[in-house]
Automatic annotation (TrEMBL):
GO terms for biological process: aerobic electron transport chain. This is NADH dehydrogenase, FAD-containing subunit. Its cofactor is FAD. The lineage of its organism: Bacteria, Bacillati, Actinomycetota, Actinomycetes, Mycobacteriales. Residues 7-333 form the FAD/NAD(P)-binding domain. Keywords: FAD, Flavoprotein, Oxidoreductase. It comes from Mycolicibacterium cosmeticum.
Length: 457
């Protein structure tokens, strides 16, 4: 059925896109929300899914289910790949590579950012990032798989390298991951193995800055550093990871000292972000300026200069140093919806004003940082604040209740209830499980070695 109502297309169902769609529910417009994953992912808890505390169902929700009560909102699966700004048409690719198009009167680009490897894309096959559910499950497989493989090996360098975990990037995600791996090794896994001592697992955290968690106040950063060190995380600051191999990393100090090689069969990458290809295409087609990472410069109402019908929201916004945090994306989504509603009512748009509600980072059990204006909390108080905020913003009441339940179990019993990992599919009885691509590329048939992991999440 075609209507003459204003057609809104929202690309991306993350924090920005979801909040925009919700606000347009019941407005006199037709909304189509297209997302390449068809679900909303609560990225701040991805690391808990990767380290076995939470399931993917607890930190994500089907967009179709989430928006079902808004009859004017349609959700579609697909990856936006092209934009015709003159015809006002977006081309979208289905998972089977076929395409379809969506016409719009107003377009909201809410595609977030992806992990950046700074020109070293080949690192991605050995060092997954942490942006999607696929990433979280891939990391879970590597982490728990590494302990399992170590258990089967005799003592020696090979076993040690399976028990060494390298994390590139000392921002909140890297810190959370590093802390969780040590906590997992010293609590949940501590008494389950017969051959190895999981507590001996080394976790190396590398960062180019002089301190971890650069966006937090120095006193909080110092506390976090001490907590991580007490947990047993080895901090290496002022260094860049300059090579990643299946069996380790090379790390180069910024002061020009010689590089060091570390043997580590598990390498995780959280060192930076960049725009997804569709965002780059939007900037190219509209002529919008963008920064090196691909963030798009927008006008004060978050629309693209010369294209008031295209809004950019969330992490992709390149204006006023707006932070890449969920709150900015949610407020941006609400703002774009408000502009659209005001336009329908014949009212002028208002400029976007970001209200900084602070930031938080989990360090370890009973220990988190919370920074909001003059309020600076660390330790137990920070942890309680962190927990309340994350529960409040999780999508869906069932997810909130079950996540709270999982946390209580983890606190009380040190167990992690979602440790199960899958081996990856086989295409025929002769083909190895895809997990071999992560661990042993040399065991793959020759023709498959070069492409190993390129298709993997
Ligand atoms: C591990 C991790 C931990 C974090 N912790 C915190 C935290 O503690 N506090 C905090 O405030 N923020 C945190 N953040 C940041 C926060 O999650 C982001 O700022 C927020 O998700 C940005 O929202 P967004 O809507 O811009 O993009 P996203 O939430 O990234 O959503 C983008 C959506 O677009 C979809 N998409 C991408 N490309 C296409 C395409 N071409 N076609 C169709 N769909 C597409 C994706 O599937 C995704 O659903 C964290 C992020 C990560 C990765």
């Amino acid at each position: 059925m075609t209507t003459s109502r204003t057609k809104i297309v929202i690309v991306g169902g993350g924090f920005g896109g979801l909040f925009c769609a919700r606000r347009l529910g019941k407005a006199d417009v037709d909304v189509t929300l297209v997302d390449r994953a068809a679900c909303h992912v609560f990225q701040p808890l991805l690391y808990q899914c990767a380290t076995g505390t939470l399931s993917i169902g607890q930190i994500s929700r089907s967009l179709r289910e989430e928006l079902a009560r808004h009859r004017n909102v349609t959700t579609l699966l697909g990856e936006a790949i092209d934009l015709d700004a003159d015809a006002r048409r977006v081309t979208v690719r289905r998972p089977d590579e076929s395409t379809y198009t969506l016409d719009y009167d107003v377009l909201v680009v809410a595609v977030g950012m992806r992990q950046a490897y700074f020109g070293n894309e080949k690192f991605a096959q050995w060092a997954p990032g942490m942006k999607t559910l696929d990433d979280a499950l891939s990391i879970r497989r590597r982490l728990f798989g590494a302990f399992e493989i170590a258990e089967t090996l005799p003592p020696g360098p090979e076993r040690d390298s399976w028990l060494t975990f390298a994390v590139a990037g000392g921002g909140p995600t890297g810190v959370e991951l590093a802390g969780q791996i040590r906590e997992m090794a010293t609590r949940a896994l501590a008494h389950e193995f017969h051959s190895i001592e999981p507590e001996e697992a080394r976790v190396l955290l590398f960062d180019g800055g002089n301190s971890i968690l650069g966006s937090f106040a120095p006193d909080l950063t110092e506390k976090a550093t001490r907590t991580l060190q007490q947990l047993g995380v080895e901090l290496h600051l002022g260094v860049h990871v300059t090579d990643v191999r299946p069996d380790g990393v090379t790390v180069t100090p910024k002061d020009g000292s010689p590089s060091t090689d570390y043997s580590a069969r598990t390498v995780l990458w959280t060192a930076g972000v960049e725009a997804v290809p569709f965002a780059r295409r939007v900037a190219e087609v509209t002529g919008a300026p963008s920064d090196r990472a691909g963030r798009i410069a927008v006008d004060s109402d978050l629309s693209i200069p010369g294209h008031p019908e295209i809004f950019v929201i969330g992490d992709l916004v390149g204006r006023d140093h707006l932070p890449g945090v969920a709150e900015n994306a949610m407020q941006g989504g609400i703002h774009a919806a408000s502009c659209i509603r005001r336009g329908l009512a014949g009212k002028p748009r208002r400029p976007f004003r970001y209200r900084d509600l602070g930031s938080a980072a989990y360090i370890s059990r009973g220990n988190a940082l919370l920074q909001a204006g003059p309020i600076r909390l660390a330790g137990l108080l920070g942890w309680l604040g962190w927990g309340l905020i994350h529960i409040a913003f999780l999508t869906g009441i069932e997810n909130r209740i079950s996540t709270l339940g999982s946390w209580l179990v983890t606190i009380a019993r040190a167990s992690r209830t979602d440790r199960t990992f899958i081996l990856g599919g086989t295409t025929s009885p002769e083909h190895p499980y895809t997990w071999l691509k992560f661990f042993h590329p040399n065991m793959l048939p020759v023709g498959e070695r070069e492409t190993a992991d390129r298709s993997a999440p």
